[in-house]
Design brief:
Number of strands: 0
Mean pLDDT: 87
Helix content: 55-70%
Structural class: mainly alpha
Largest sheet: none
Strand content: under 5%
Distance between the termini: 25 Å
Length: 113
């Protein structure tokens, strides 16, 4: 894979990381502790708030996993290993990386385990 294509993937990964950081900032409000003041909030409203809090925490968890994958892909770029399967060493087709540049394995290694 040529250097210009690798740089395009680096930019894409950095944009993905910036988007995750922005989503983290926006989602912080939804993860705050739900107050259980029975006078101001009814039981159903509290349950709804707790459900929203749980969903916000789950989304934050998914963002954390994706952040790790992006950092790993950026580290592979720095090491000169980006675009090669971490298991068999074969080149990962660029079309596969266009779909998800964080993928560390080729199709056959990903399918086998």
């Amino acid at each position: 894979m040529d250097q210009s294509r690798i740089e395009a993937f680096r930019r894409q990964l950095e944009e993905m990381l910036a988007g995750i950081e922005a989503d983290d900032a926006a989602g912080a409000e939804g993860q705050r502790t739900v107050t259980l003041d029975q006078q101001s909030v009814g039981r159903l409203s509290r349950m709804d708030a707790m459900q929203q809090q749980a969903m916000a925490k789950a989304q934050a968890g998914r963002r954390a996993v994706m952040r790790k994958r992006i950092h790993a892909a950026l580290a592979r770029i720095e090491a000169g290993e980006f675009g090669y399967c971490e298991e068999c060493g074969e080149e990962i087709p660029p079309r596969r990386l266009e779909l998800d540049p964080t993928l560390p394995r080729c199709v056959s290694c990903a399918a086998s385990g």
